[in-house]
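In this supplementary section we document a worked example of the pipeline. Step one takes a protein sequence of length 254 as its only input; no multiple sequence alignment statistics are reported here. Step two produces a three-dimensional model, which step three serialises into structure tokens for compact storage. The input and output of this example are shown verbatim.
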Amino acid sequence: MSEEVIYADLKFQDASKIENIQEFDQVGTKGNHGTRTKCCPGKSWFFYITSKTEMEKLKKLQYFKEELQKNVSLQLMHNMNNSKNIMKLSITLQIIATKLCYELSRKKPEHQCNPCPKEWMWHGNSCYLLSKDFKTWPNSDKMCSANNASLLKIKDKSVAEFIKFQKLHDYWLGLSPRKYSLDYQTLEEIIMSSDRFTRNTNDPSDRIYCRNIRNAIYIYSDYCTKQKKYICEKLANPVRTESILMNEVPDGRM
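The serialised model returned by step three reads:
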């Protein structure tokens, strides 16, 4: 009787141990989808927890990266807009400074804001020099080149009106030398003509004709070897804003 009780007790204990091991194995060896793994229960559970933690960290880093890229893009757009606004403001300031300098130069040609060299006249975007000496057309062209300029070309109505206002007579212009004398033209007709640019600037012979302005508004042909005055033109320098803002004159006015 006692032997049967002892045997039954041992059998019950063994069954309890087996059941506990099976329960632990089922919990500890399930993967993400509840499938059993071949690893030992403790290592599988640790691997699962570690992987989940790392995935959470990776997601956070990815989110941080996307937010950082978004902020950088927004900052770049903001900087580009600021650059555009600064550029527009700079252009507007330059226009205002140029207009103001032009008015100051009309009253005082030697004003330091004047973008043209001394003795040169300022009109539009160009500087003009009316010579006082007489030279042949080729030598006139060379004199202008020595001043980083060229003989005058009538390019638009604004320049034509400026030249009319000077009331010039017998000045060489930067028109093409010709083998034949041409009928006279007005300044406006020259603007519409393709014959506006200097070509063949080698020393013309005695029988080559060059163009000159007479009586302020008419263009005539004459031998290029004749002695006449000449008009040089070159691009004006940009007006420096500080030359206006920092300028002082004796009476305290600009």
